[in-house]
Write a structure and sequence with these properties.
single chain; 132 residues
Length: 132
Amino acid sequence: MFNIVSVNIASILVLVLLAVTFIQSGYDKVMDWKGNLEWLKEHFANTSLKNRVPLALLHILVLELISGILCTVGVIQLLVNQNRTYGLYGAIFSCITLIMLLYGQRLAKDYDGARTIVIYFIPAVLAVFWLS
């Protein structure tokens, strides 16, 4: 069915990491929308996003789900036919999502949160490089 030796294992591992991260995060937002919204309203109370938190949360949710699904399909595609298309799109969407999250953390002056996002961004950029 597939030849694991000829597939870039590092790309698969990073795509799995991103898929788990974003699908779990999206699931959490869907299952606890109210709790996430309340926390984020407080988090962004002193920023230009204070009146746009529900819309921003919806945008992030959509981007996280797109990123996670593309990464998942990318892993399957790499394993089945060694095609990199969906994995590359997943990695790119992951980078875009992480940049948006980073912007929000910096806007809220949550520098520890921003630092954590950068930790995820590094392997996402590596995946873009490897899959390009």
